[in-house]
Amino acid sequence: MKTKPIGLYVHIPFCIKKCAYCDFCSFPTSSVDISLTEEYVDALVEEIESYRELNLTLDTVFIGGGTPSLLSVHQLAKIMRSVEKAFRLLPNTEVTLEANPATELQKKALDLKTLGVNRISIGLQSIHENELKILGRIHSYNDFLDTYKAVRDAGIGNVNVDLMYAIPEQTLMSLDKTLSEIISHRPEHISLYSLILEEGTPLYNKRPSLTLPSEDEECDMYYHAAEKLRGAGYSHYEISNYSLNSRECRHNLKYWHCEDYIGVGLAAHSCFQGVRYANTTSLSGYINDKSHRRIKSDVLSFDDRRFEYAMLGLRLKEGISLSEYEKSFGEDFMATRTELVTKLSVGGYLTVGDGRISLTEQGFYVSNHILAELI
Fold first, then answer.
1. From first to last of its 375 residues, what are the pLDDT tens digits of the chain?
2. 3 state DSSP class of 14
3. Which CATH class for the 316-375 domain?
4. Dihedral (C-alpha) 29, 33, 38, 39: value to the nearest 10 degrees?
5. Where are the alpha helices (DSSP H) in 232-274?
6. Does domain 6-255 fall into CATH 3.20.20.70?
7. Distance CA 232, CA 369 (A)
8. d(CA 372, CA 180)
């Protein structure tokens, strides 16, 4: 039987400075010996090449972080060569690299294109200096403009821009200005996330002194952004993601479609052949002890698979296929949910039609509550 192509996530845990809202597994380069980045890349290559005997095919690669764009071209080339040795890459493989605008990508863009990177995800968040400063971002809007131009000049024709709303001091007007500016550049993809104050982060600790948008203001921001982006031709295909025609992030779709993917690097997660596993979050442990890189492994139960199919699928505008659900899990999704689905449909939170169930724009905004009720 022909094996379906999978996705590969590669984690780079280094950044120049950790953002004030970030709780990801990452380390500012100022806090680690610079030689550790090279040692980490070598360990990463070793883990990547450990998959060689499985003879797997990839059609997406996502190099995330942290800030992958701060690595040297030599280090990124070493990683890409190891991926090409360990896996078979289809000709149309989507290869994404996350980038911070302050990492002088204009000096690397052509080299990245040569290495096979064909999609760049730029972390901008806002065009306004006061909002960037509050978030602890190290770049300016001008840095973004220089980066975006360099990426386009290099011939990379698939770009995502990460934006945020509900930032302290942000207003509906300032968000609208950010959206208008980015839309004018016509990136193929825009991710728009609500700022979440994660416990233990500097921004969380400052929350009593922050001027945060009210719940009503945050709601207005969400609906305004959705309407503005749709009006500009961007499809709201997932709760936090918008794309021009056929430019959805193919790698992330694997997560939402419950397809197989492998994660390599510090704190990376995988879901492969019915098993979910995770790597260590210890940087020294990852580099120095390859026998203990994987710290957790769980076989997905029937209930796990059923829950994830519905929960992840309903994050997408397309929703889930009722016939596929029944075929996969031997039960009618609607059987025990008819009354609830009717109530949510009447309330404007979801729709049922053409054999599918999906959330509406209103349902997207309160998706956590809807999914908790529905699943």
1. 467 999 999 999 999 999 999 988 888 887 677 789 999 999 999 999 999 999 999 999 999 999 999 999 999 999 999 999 999 999 999 999 999 999 989 899 999 999 999 999 999 999 999 999 999 999 999 999 999 999 999 999 999 999 999 999 999 999 999 999 999 999 999 999 999 999 999 999 999 999 999 999 999 999 999 999 999 999 999 999 999 999 999 999 999 999 999 999 999 999 999 999 999 999 999 999 888 899 989 999 999 999 999 999 999 999 999 999 999 999 999 999 999 999 999 999 999 999 999 999 999 999 999 999 998
2. strand
3. mainly alpha
4. -120
5. 250-256
6. yes
7. 29
8. 34
Closest CA to 308 of 262, 250, 256, 348: 256
Q: Around Cβ 349, how many Cβ atoms within 10 Å?
A: 22
- Owner of token pair 């200005």: 177
The residue extents of the domains of the chain are 6-255, 316-375
What are the tokens at 132?
Answer: 């960037």
- Which pair of tokens denotes residue 242? 């918008």
For CA atoms 361, 365, 366, 370, the dihedral sign is positive
Q: Which amino acid is at 354?
A: D
* Residue among 267, 320, 251, 212 at smallest CA distance from 93: 251
Comparing CA positions, the residue from 367, 20, 363, 361 lying closest to residue 167 is 20
Cα separation, 190 vs 203, whole angstroms: 24
As a whole number of angstroms, the distance between CA 269 and CA 280 comes to 10
Closest CA to 268 of 94, 11, 23, 30: 11
User: Which DSSP category does 199 fall into?
Assistant: T
Of 247, 242, 217, 246, nearest to 231 by C-alpha is: 242
